[in-house]
Amino acid sequence: MSWVVIDEEKCTGCALCATRCPRCFTDKEGIILTDAQEGNCILCGHCVSLCPTEAITHAQFKREDFVEIDRGVNFETGRFLEFLKERRSHRHFLDKKVARQDLETLMEACRWAPTGSNVQNVEVIIYTNPEKISKLSDLTIDYFVWIGERVRKKIARLEAEGQQDALDYQMTFRALGLGERMIQDRESGRDPIFHKAPVLMIFHSVSPTSAPKDNAVLAAHTVALTARTLGLESCYIGLLEVAAEYYPPLREELNLPQEHKVFDTMILGYPKLKFLKTVPRRPIKVRWE
Ligand SMILES: Cc1cc2nc3c(=O)[nH]c(=O)nc-3n(C[C@H](O)[C@H](O)[C@H](O)COP(=O)(O)O)c2cc1C
Predict the structure, then answer these.
(1) The domain spanning residue 13 has which CATH number?
(2) DSSP for 88-152?
(3) Cβ of 91 below 6 Å from ligand 1
(4) CA of 50 to the centre of ligand 1 (A)
(5) How many domains would you assign to the chain?
(6) Whose CA is nearest to atom 30 of ligand 1?
(7) Are residues 245 and 221 in the same domain?
(8) Atom 11 of ligand 1, nearest CA residue
(9) φ/ψ of residue 31, rounded to 5
């Protein structure tokens, strides 16, 4: 049975639903037929949202969850571009807590980011406890020390085999020493991973799903931009992501649900430094066709 019911009294046959979604709707000369089911309906809600006469009822949704759009987008483009250009990665934060309510606002923004096939399965862990954040930082550093040792052994093997010039060799060589540098940083009182940020967000999801990395990146960047409207700044931290993939003690500490992987990590807080100028960026390479 179709999840969608069309109220024939209200339907004008405008076929906006069928135009938008030929998978679930068919326009038979003004009579709209529907067959929305698990196999073809991705629960995007577009049919209900588009229908001008509220003729569509979808069994998987409550009508009150569709909220009237009465204003449309009213940003001034130039100002919005400035807002994007003024975003910088911040690694110095004031010793000031971020209110729970603001974090909840960020999560409200986060759930409106699009996801592949509308899977809506990005989850977030929000750390605000400095000891916990520090522990995750230590485990990430441990990973780079641990991997550094393995890299050293690998280089010795590659050299023994006369493969010093291999790309593999060059890449592993670059990775060497990262752990030691992180330890030195930590010993001088800095946190080389999370920069003593008051908030750490980990974006994760089940791994075999539609576009998990893209989903997490979009969710995270929606948070990063919304955070700016609250006076908060952020920085992505790829270092944890790679450690979480390969270092069992860190995985254990993160305690992710089964089959979940970390797909993005971000620190947030009130910025200590104020950037006075935008920075240069390379022009985008575009092929106009
Ligand atoms: C995927 C990704 C991973 C990143 N990982 C780190 C990181 O681990 N540590 C860090 O300090 N910055 C990290 N950054 C921040 C980049 O260094 C920064 O975005 C870049 O230098 C450009 O600076 P801007 O964000 O201020 O424009 C990361 C950025 C991205 C997009």
Answers:
(1) 3.30.70.20
(2) -B---B-S-PPPHHHHHHHHHHHTTS--GGG----EEEEE--HHHHHHHHHHHHHHHHHHHHHHH
(3) yes
(4) 39
(5) 3
(6) 236
(7) yes
(8) 237
(9) -95, 125
Instruction: Please count the residues of the chain.
Output: 289
For ligand 1, say whether the CB of 239 is within 6 Å of any of its atoms.
yes
**One domain for residues 203 and 124:** yes
What is the distance in A from the centroid of ligand 1 to the CA of 227? 16
Ligand 1, from 136, 225, 237: best to mutate by most atoms within 8 Å of Cβ? 237
For the chain of 289 residues, list the mean pLDDT of each consecutive stretch of 10. 94 95 93 94 96 96 92 84 97 97 98 97 98 97 91 81 70 74 94 97 96 98 98 97 94 96 98 96 97
Q: Are the C-beta atoms of 267 and 235 separated by less than 8 Å? A: yes
Q: Answer whether 0.85 is exceeded by the pTM.
A: yes
Domain assignment of residue 51, given as a range: 4-65
Q: Which atom of ligand 1 is nearest to the CA of 240?
A: 8
Tell me which of 86, 89, 91 to substitute to probe ligand 1's pocket, judged by most ligand atoms within 8 Å of the beta carbon: 89
- Whether 33 and 143 map to the same domain: the answer is no
CA pair distance 243, 145, nearest whole angstrom = 11
Are 123 and 204 in contact by the 8 Å Cβ rule? The answer is yes
Q: Which of 70, 104, 87, 122 is nearest to 224 (CA)?
A: 87
